Amino acid sequence: MNALRLAAIALIVAGALGLGYGSFSYTKESHDAKIGPIELSVKDKQTVNIPVWAGIGAIVAGGLILLYGSKKS
């Protein structure tokens, strides 16, 4: 299996996951404070929404690469 085919399959899987989940969250530490023996930290939870058009576009692009990318001229 060549690199082009692997990239196409990765695009299709990423597009399907984007359509299935729709968003993902992660936690980011934004502030740290150390005052003597006391340590304070603030963690913000961030959510990233994945647009439907991006998921569909990744699936279509991966499919096109699978169909036309491996044909030799």
TrEMBL record:
Q: What is this protein called?
A: DUF3185 domain-containing protein
Task: Name the residues that span the membrane.
Answer: 50-69
Give the UniProt keywords, A-Z: Membrane, Transmembrane, Transmembrane helix
What lineage does UniProt assign to this protein's organism?
Bacteria, Pseudomonadati, Pseudomonadota, Gammaproteobacteria, Chromatiales
Domain of life, per UniProt, equals Bacteria
